[in-house]
Amino acid sequence: MNQALEVIRNRRSIRRFRPEQIAEHELEAIVESALFAPSAMNGQPWHFTVIQERRTLERMAQLMRENMLKSGNEFMVRRASDPSFSPFYNAPTLILITADAKDKFGQFDCAAAAQNIALAAESLGMGSCIMAMSAILFESEEGVELARSLGVPDGYVHVCTVALGYKDGPNPQVPPRKMDVVNYVK
Length: 186
Ligand SMILES: Cc1cc2nc3c(=O)[nH]c(=O)nc-3n(C[C@H](O)[C@H](O)[C@H](O)COP(=O)(O)O)c2cc1C
Hints:
This protein is of the alpha+beta class. Helix content is 39%, strand content 17%. The protein contains six helices and four strands. The protein has helices at residues 3-10, 24-35, 54-70, 74-81, 106-123, 141-150; strands at residues 46-51, 93-100, 126-131, 156-166. A four-stranded antiparallel β-sheet has the order 1-2-4-3. The mean pLDDT is 97.
């Protein structure tokens, strides 16, 4: 297997991170990998907010918990009520990916960028976790204000966040894959 295929196979969603910040040159390489993702008609209808400021990460985690508790969704309320629950797994870096709401393929394009980030992180021996649950962060007045204060452009909507950091331990086991979802016609 070549290196690219190995990285694809080895990448796992990492939910335990070491507290130290990732190196600047690694962050730059990871962000660049997002900018080089494919996009429909090369529209690049994405925006990336890289958050490393501890105070802001803590505020986001707190708001996430509050919105989950207010959601009325049983699963969300149960998770947020667990005192050990850390919405972003205490990752030292979080990349918020938002898409131009007017772009028909914004979600697809941003998903490709998120995967590039995850693969770049794995290739550098770092951990990542793509999270869509973070959508709930922006489902309140405070969340809308937060997005504004983070510099998310007007008209851009949440697609996902990606937690990034050095792994605290070995990769978890591969969650089972469905292997019977391919039909070859040849
Ligand atoms: C669109 C999308 C949304 C996800 N949302 C979350 C999330 O909110 N929280 C989380 O811990 N993991 C999330 N994950 C990670 C999945 O749980 C994970 O990819 C899946 O269980 C397979 O495990 P693997 O990534 O280690 O192969 C998400 C993954 C994707 C692609």
